[in-house]
Specification:
Length: 398
């Protein structure tokens, strides 16, 4: 079985009338033009961009020796641009709007100064809202790594798992709560979580929370937090309904933007022409058996579709797993952990995994089904080419 790559700048034509294959209620859903976005990336990469100047070392921020040691253990030698500009402002107590591409170190940009705030005041309480369960769990894991040995407690509040342990942990002293809006709202309504005691609120990946319908829950939760607070807002984009949150959330904020371009430079983007839909999985098979496909994240459009494709790959002998909304949270987390530990080579997912997840050393992202927008495309391919490593993103088109 042969397949044909149309690499950056090497594809044929510009299909301005390209349509995605998905449908809702029998009606086609117009998708972004993959040829156009890859060509745009090629042109943008040819432009000259001034590199971000890093003005600080972590030691310049005046943070505690224990925190500096934990950062060193994590391999952090110097701040990323978003960390360099954001950490001093958060330490000063300023409200911050942080705009940055995925994979730029946003999580450490807010966790590092917030841990320092807690160390200085053990009564400090922080609420972090995240759009997905996986990202919330990842934030908590990073929090534990940065705060190791400091006796700072955190409670993870997400759906898809038993609420009982979360209620129990909320009764015990804690400094940080991280969770998804739906579960947090339930805990507030059931009076297990009192947001009036929180001095700092973080909205992470705010644009995605709005995209997936959390705007009412976010407004409700923010209304329960004291007006006198520090508010930190992180997003890849700010437009439309996201502005509704900002207007009531931050006060006299400092806006920090390090979005210098729309795609990551070290991701090679490739269009894969599908000559025969009936043999599309065979094209995928022929890719995956190649040595360079070491750790592969494959995106599909529907829960049913990615499950079927994963089953097919397993039947062909591939070490593959899948995460989607029909899986329990424990199943999703076990599969994700197996992928991170290289126990499986291939992870299939719907867009639930496209936002914010930091999965080390993904060699390839494959868009087996087209995403529904250019933003979704950017966030999907951002799972590779992280931490200054090279990556490849392949997109199947008819």
């Amino acid at each position: 079985m042969s397949y044909q790559f149309h690499q950056r700048g090497g594809f044929r034509g510009s299909r301005s009338n390209f349509r995605g294959q998905s449908s809702r209620g029998g009606r086609p859903v117009r998708s972004f033009n993959p040829y156009q976005i890859v060509r745009s990336s090629e042109l943008q990469s040819a432009r000259t961009f001034e590199p971000e100047v890093i003005e600080h070392q972590f030691s310049d921020f005046g943070i505690s020796p224990e925190l500096l040691l934990n950062l060193k253990r994590k391999g952090y030698e110097k701040p990323t641009p978003i960390q360099d500009k954001t950490i001093p402002e958060i330490l000063k107590g300023t409200d911050v709007i942080g705009i940055a591409n995925t994979g730029t170190g946003k999580t450490a940009a807010f966790l590092v100064p917030l841990i320092e705030k807690i160390l200085k005041d053990r009564q400090e309480k922080v609420l972090i809202l995240s759009p997905t369960r996986e990202l919330a769990a990842q934030i908590q894991a990073e929090f534990y790594a940065y705060s190791s040995g400091m006796r700072i407690s955190s409670v993870l509040c997400i759906g898809g798992v038993n609420e009982g342990p979360q209620r129990y942990n909320l009764r015990k002293p804690h400094n940080l709560v991280v969770g998804t809006p739906g579960r947090l709202k339930d805990l507030v309504n059931d009076r297990f979580l009192d947001l009036s005691t929180f001095q700092t609120v973080v909205l992470d990946e705010a644009d995605h929370m709005v995209d997936i319908g959390f705007l009412p829950d976010i407004k409700y939760l923010v209304s329960k937090v004291p007006v006198s607070r520090q508010s930190l807002f992180f997003s890849a984009t700010i437009d439309g309904k996201v502005q509704e949150i900002l207007s009531a959330f931050v006060k006299n904020p400092v806006t920090i933007s390090v979005r210098t371009r729309d795609t990551v430079d070290n991701i090679r983007q490739v269009i894969v022409k599908v000559a025969n839909q009936a043999k599309k999985v065979d094209q995928l098979h022929d890719m995956l058996i190649k040595d360079e496909f070491e750790k592969v994240l494959i995106f599909g459009r529907t829960k049913w579709g990615v499950q079927k494709l994963s089953d097919e790959l397993v039947s062909r002998g591939f070490r593959s797993g899948v995460i989607h909304g029909n899986k329990s949270q424990s199943q999703r987390q076990r599969t994700l952990d197996s992928f991170k530990r290289n126990e499986i080579k291939i992870l299939l997912a719907t867009d639930v995994a496209a936002r914010g997840l930091d999965i080390p050393n993904v060699s390839h992202v494959i868009n087996y089904d087209l995403p529904e927008s250019s933003d979704a495309y950017i966030h999907r391919i951002g799972r590779t080419g992280r931490a200054d490593k090279k990556g490849t993103a392949l997109t199947f088109v008819d």
